[in-house]
Amino acid sequence: MKRPEKEAVIAQLTDKFRGADAIYLTEYRGLTVPQISELREKLGRDTSYTVAKNTLIRIAAKEAGVEGLDEILAGPTAVTFVKGDFIEAAKTLRDFAKTNKALIIKGGFADGTVYDAEGAKKLADLKSRPQLLAEFAGDIKATMSKAAYLFNALPTKAVRTIDALREKQEKAA
Questions:
Q1: Nearest to 50 by CA among 86, 97, 84, 10
Q2: What are the φ/ψ torsions at residue 172 (nearest 5 degrees)?
Q3: Most exposed: 52, 82, 89, 138, by fewest CB within 10 Å?
Q4: Which residue has better confidence, 125 or 50?
Q5: Number of Cβ within a 10 Å radius of residue 145
Q6: Which residues have CB under 8 Å from 129's CB, separation 6+?
């Protein structure tokens, strides 16, 4: 690859690093082109799966301000650039790696933190943003239902007590 081509690739990778919410590094050795295409399809539109030389990835990461990936960048490496929910991308990579043993998750970078292979796999075990929002909405609804019940219970109890006293006075009279 000639120097102008390398500079163009570095510029492109730097833009992807800057625009990504998270980055996952994988080893793709042993995957066929149809398998890589399938993985790209499963990752979705907001995620790109790019194969590049480690040296170019390292330079682009430093230019984008992403530090700490040097230890992970060994051997054939593909970079997954994620825009949006990076937990879903981690789950997709984990599930794909279960069925395709040739894909190895090497690590990642999200929210300013570099993750090793185990850390990147643990991200996949987290709940996604939509799941957390749904649970939060359910908790709020449950709390409001309890409050409504309590507010309704006091007048109901008061009415029953007054009614019981009235009946008792009627029987006594």
A1: 10
A2: -70, -30
A3: 138
A4: 50
A5: 10
A6: 85, 87
pTM exceeds 0.85: no
The residue type found at 19 is G
Say how far apart CA 24 and CA 124 lie, in whole Å: 11
* Helices 33-43 and 86-99: angle between axes, nearest 10 degrees: 150
Tokens for 89, please give them.
Answer: 């991308």
At residue 18, the 3 state secondary structure works out as helix
Q: What are the angstrom distances between the C-alpha of 36 and each of 20, 83, 103, 136, 169?
A: 20, 19, 9, 36, 84
CA quadruple 122, 106, 52, 9: dihedral, nearest 10: 50
Radius of gyration, alpha carbons of the chain:
28
Calpha distance 72→74 (Å, rounded): 6
pLDDT > 80? residue 34: yes
The answer to whether the CB of 58 falls within 8 A of the CB of 70 is yes
The tens digit of pLDDT for each residue in 96-145 reads 888 888 888 888 888 778 888 888 888 777 777 777 788 888 878 877 77
